[in-house]
Amino acid sequence: MKCYILTCDQKMIMIEPLENESFVSRQKETERTTTTVFAVFIASLLSVSFGFVLHFPNPLKLVNERWYTAGHISFVIAASIGSVFARIFIDKLGRRSTILMTSIISLLGYVLLIIGCPQIQSIEGFSNFITGFGCIYCGIGVGMTSLVVPVYIAEVSSARIRGIMGTITNHAIVFGIFLYSLTAEIYDWNVKYHYSALVGLVIVLLSFLIILMPETPRWLLANNQRDKAFKNQLWLLGIESNAEDECNNIEINLAHQHIASVNDFRSPGLFRPLAIGSLLFLIHQFTLIGYINYLSHLLMHFKELYTIIICFLLQLVLSLVGCFIVERFYRRYLLLFGSAILLFCSIGFAVLSDLKKANDKMWVAYLIIYAIIFITIWGSLPWIIASEIFPPRARGLLGGIVRSFIWLLFIPMERLFLWLVFENGSLWFTSSVSFISILFVYYIVPETKKLTLEEIEHYYLIYRGFRNYLL
């Protein structure tokens, strides 16, 4: 167990007992991971639906631009509202129950989409109205998913595998985006949205397997259900693991906590994680918007179905590579490396574009580099870090605030990016964002790899400066 000492010059020193290494090695031998991976996989099915449903305002565009704009705005506002709902429910009902509720809401949304999409041209008014409501319900489901799934994954995973488990959220979203691209490409426009909604419906129905998964031990201990928490911890880690010690550590941490209030936001223990999480997701949102637009450009460039399937398989390979590098390398170094690659590549291609020396092959090469950096680094790591730095007593509150804020900014950010693409300024904008992210990660973002959630919270309580010393 690591401990921290605050010195006279306000620097924090981490002291590690000599027997810690033997303890970690013993933990690796006795800790079971298959059940944890299974629970994370089931929860991540909703994240697949997250990426899959991002395109569903699009069929409205085939009929009327006004309907499309209204559906798109309604979807984003509903996602923001869904984040607020999830913030309330994960503390009141539990993480698993909130995932099940999210599945039911998404199920209703897909049913409305299946009813509305097939007749979208023949019965414009009523069908578009139903489709719009389907987008709203799916938007609420997406907003709730963006909060509850990362929280569930962070709390059922041990410190040793939390990083690689956290990457699954983003990879599931990217998988959903590609899955929609495949299903939409196979059929012609008048049936592909109906078929896509059916595929999404199957994904949501599979997520009902969450009923068989355990509630997080941390939430059970916070609600005075120790026996059930101990059984769930044994199910997750195995009977030979130190499940009782894990429960005792969580209980000790909970005993020194109080419910977060408005006045607590003036303290570094809440304000700093909120600011760091918001800025991380702001940068992540810009890279996600760029990825979606660049992916659409790539799929338009390669219109054959076999090339889309190849891109799909490459995405799966990159997802596996992303899980590997997150497991092997420190998170801050990966973020710095990804931002540096995007910075130099964006500047180089921007200069070539301004000099009229960039051709289609060079542009495709840049899009591939951008996609690799997003899938392996900047797409997944903000999800992991944000789920770790929020203190357990306010994880739902801070997560709901950040997700709701980011969803409300989605449309303005998307419009800004599309305008920059039209004005040939997206490369310089990406360069600026990459440069700012390098400074932000180096000076502010803490390193959370191999630290328990209690140790990360302890860091914020002991050290009150904004400069990062948890390197």
TrEMBL record:
InterPro entries: MFS_dom, MFS_sugar_transport-like, MFS_trans_sf, MFS_Trehalose_Transporter, Sugar/inositol_transpt. The gene is LOC136075286. It is found in: Membrane. Keywords: Membrane, Transmembrane, Transmembrane helix. The chain crosses the membrane at residues 36-56, 68-90, 99-123, 129-154, 161-181, 193-213, 274-294, 306-326, 333-352, 364-385, 397-421, 427-445. Residues 1-449 form the Major facilitator superfamily (MFS) profile domain. PROSITE patterns: MFS. It comes from the Eukaryota. Gene3D superfamilies: MFS general substrate transporter like domains (1.20.1250.20). The keyword Transmembrane applies. Its main location: membrane. PANTHER family: GH07001P-RELATED (PTHR48021:SF1), PTHR48021. This is Solute carrier family 2, facilitated glucose transporter member 8-like. Coiled coil: none annotated. It is a multi-pass membrane protein.
